[in-house]
Amino acid sequence: MSGLIKSSIARKVAMALSGLFLVFFLLQHFTINFTSIFSPDTFNELSHFMGTNPVVQFALQPVLIFGVVFHFIMGFILEIKNRNARAVKYAKYSGGANSSWMSRNMILSGLVILAFLGLHFYDFWIPEMVHKYVEFAPEDPSRYYHELSEKFVSPVRTGLYVLSFFFLALHLWHGFASSFQSVGFNNKFSVGATKFAKVFAVVIPLGFIIISLVLHFNH
Amino acid sequence: MSILDSKIPEGPLADKWTKHKNTINLVNPANKRNIDVIVVGTGLAGGSAAATLAELGYNVKTFCYQDSPRRAHSIAAQGGINAAKNYQGDGDSSYRLFYDTIKGGDYRSREANVYRLAEVSANIIDQCVAQGVPFAREYGGLLDNRSFGGVLVSRTFYAKGQTGQQLLLGAYSAMNRQINRGKIEAFNRHEMLDLVKVDGKARGIIARNLVTGEIERHSAHAVVLATGGYGNVFFLSTNAMGSNVMAAWRAHRRGAFFANPCYTQIHPTCIPVSGDHQSKLTLMSESLRNDGRIWVPKRKEDAEAIRAGKLKPTQLSEEERDYYLERRYPAFGNLVPRDVASRAAKERCDAGFGVNKTGEAVYLDFASAIQRYGKEKALTSGIHNPSAQQILEFGEKVIENKYGNLFQMYEKIVDENPYKTPMMIYPAVHYTMGGLWVDYNLQTTVPGCYAAGEANFSDHGANRLGASALMQGLADGYFVLPYTIGDYLSHDIRTGKIPTDTPEFDQAEKDVKDRIEKLMSGSGEHSVDYYHKKLGKIMWNKCGMSRNESGLKEAIDEIAALRADFWKNVKVPGTADSMNPELEKAGRVADFLELGELFAKDALDRNESCGGHFREESVEQSGEQKGEALRDDKNFKYVSAWEYKGEPKDAVLHKEDLVFENIELKTRSYK
Amino acid sequence: MNLILKIWRQKDAQSKGKIVEYPISGIEGDMSFLEMLDVLNEELINKGEEPVVFDHDCREGICGACSLQINGEPHGPDRLITTCQLHMRKFNDGDTIFIEPFRAKAFPVVKDLMVDRSAFDRIQHAGGYISVNTSGNTIDANAIPINKENADDAFAAATCIGCGACVAACKNASAMLFTSAKVSQYALLPQGQVEATERVLAMVNQMDEEGFGNCTNTGACEIECPKGISLENIARMNREYLKASLKG
Hints:
The complex is a heterotrimer of chains A (219), B (671) and C (248). Chain A contains 8 helices and no strands. Chain A has 219 residues and is mostly helical. By secondary structure, chain C is an alpha+beta fold. In chain C, helix 2 runs antiparallel to helix 6 (196-209) and helix 3 packs antiparallel against helix 5 (176-187). At the B-C interface, helix 3, helix 5, helix 6 and helix 12 of B face helix 1, helix 2 and helix 3 of C.
């Protein structure tokens, strides 16, 4: 890992690649969750597979966790380095004149997402781990939908989820498209790729918001 | 016999340089390591010389007042660089380039130097391309050329309107390579304040660290001055704000003769002055004259109405316009050389036909070019009956492709759209052909002190052709000076390092400190700019585009009086031992106040009209050329080299007779 | 026009600086921003105060000396120009204008508004050249035809004036646009290929050592660049760097 963070460009590429990996994960996560609003059975089936398949559990899950942690730690390192690169601040700084709010506040949207992950782990991942690996409770392939919908009874939690997805959209709006540039992809296909990334940045978080709201109001 | 020895090698013109290179002394590579060379100025000439000298093995120290060598004012050259490559197959050759340059300089330059310049010009292009300079190319991938400044062949290489920038960055990159190798030590934000001579030879300089104010001693076996021209003696010019004559003038005071100070190029296509606050003038490339037509109103009433803002230029019909260059010079029209175009503009404005609010501007009109290109483009786009609107759009597009950056620059400064209304232009001081006198080896009259680029006088005679300044700077720096200097340095292989703790350095440092002290202790009545602006006004009015005896005599007296007042009453705030831009300016203006007087004295001596130097007393009295400049080869076919003797008025003139063996002296006619 | 100027004054690199307010009147729209500062300085000198120090030289937008963060933007609110080409007609009577130095740890203040940009020079020393002797004994310039598109792109990258606006604009004070412009110029030309690997590694390494921040693709540099140097150059440098790293 030390090799990966030695130069500014290597850090930048590492940030982009870990981000892209998380984008794929997000798509996968969204696809499964989306089934919950029209077919609880499909949702249960998929969740059961993901929750019990050893490859997913013991190979993909650690990689994912590593990816998340790496992306966050690197984000913090970069933020600190970047702040240090300008020791004396401007009395007046018109960032809005030349760059988007999203691009300048990745750390803020990132922190909101980090806080959300805390809540999300508390809601699902920790109970799940306890269920499976601490209590060794018997597996019930149809429990997932129920557990999911239970969580969205609370309007406060639903509200927090919606807010977090909004920040996720802001984060993706800059982050996804910008990762292409970081890995050196800037050519005649870039306009299309950027458009795709921006659509993704809106559609996926919006989809998550819809899922949360549907589950909340269906209850 | 003059005491000036130009050291031009014997033999036929075309063989002189090769023969010279073959016969001069060389320094063995092992000995080069023990020899130091100081290069002052890091523009095209200084940067390229420093890089080449370091590459050859000498230890080089460079000095520039800017924060980086990359900012030298060579960077602002727009148009291009000439080279006799004959890539276009239009019959170009070294001889033609030589001939054009001599003729363009109105037969006031040395044949041998100019021929050498033309000879090495082709190498410059090879060299720069190898360095990665991105010249403009054609679709086939080969280098593009354009015709420039009214010559009959296309020999100008260019990089859009930024040729000087690209060439300078090329030289800067060559310097960087040597800095990285430790062969060049760069002293940026340093200004040379004096030349130090030991036993009659240039052995070092005194420089001021502009950040700390510290006075430093630097020694070397030879000193190269590549510090550019002195156009800022006019206050307003196209030079950079910091461009100055200090290094050259300090060398002059230490014994280097100053040649032809009155030869100044006043460039015809600059953006006119807008008010008293103006700090500098902006040039627009001469290439604009390839497509623009220059005119003023035919009737004085119209010019007055335009000045008062009651009439717009576009409201005047073709019959109401006076395309005065096309009228006076039907053969060359708008493409007459710079000096001719400038004088013609001044003549019209002085007669009351000038157009902007100050009355000092003429129009440069692209309307007919837009029409011409528009129709052409419409035809090639397959539209046979284009509407007026289509023609306009096509035409503007073509003009934008050719001159877009210049048009944008004009619009930013003047706040008028030059696609819709004609540009306004007026001549401005641009380049000084005069400078330190040098021999064929580029050595000044001080042994060991060399001058390169605009700082010397050598190649352009009384008028410089477009795209020749870049060529000369790089020729001097890359291909001439590094070899000729070896001949001198070959005698220094046993000298060892020059110590700086000698009485000569002590004295030079004391002189510098006393002078600073004196500048700091003026009574404080007027700022430095006050004096600089006053000097500029005298120079522009009396030593500008046209000069006469009584005006020049007045100028000499006025400048001397202004100089006395300056030393008594100038105000320099701050301290000498810290960063102090006002002190820097004061030192430079003090030298301009001496140079200005010598300039006028030289102009007074030269009672002929040649190139950029126009004496009202010397004009053709009759015939087709009536009223045009009259050169006097019988009495003035010489280089004026002035020796310093204290006050400028006491300067002694030495004449270097110019010998023309290969070229017949003719009257420049553009009719 | 009457204006209130809020200007950063700092005696030297060691001293602490502060914003000082200067009212100024009689400013005309035809003046350039630097000519407006000339007027202020003339007033200060006549009052016996020290004038405001700022870098400037060619005053035609090409030397790259002038800098200034004006109202929070490098080279002020106009686009594709340097401060010396900014005209006062872009401001209104009564405006308050903040004038600060370009800020970055790698650009320490020398005095007032003047900063030390020698970090840029050092990046160039590290590899901003093609190692060819200046003897003139190279091959004929037309012996290597270069595709016009690449030649034009190389030229566009080479028009960088090294002013530092990219660093000043970037919220991270990153020098990626500057460095990538030089890397790109040579990467696009056949002459630059021979040393491509060493060049990009050395230049990026030096850039990092100077203490510039990381690029986070905000794009502010491209918007504020007076020469319109494209972000494509940064992508190209990223590619070149990855390629070079893999080569070792």
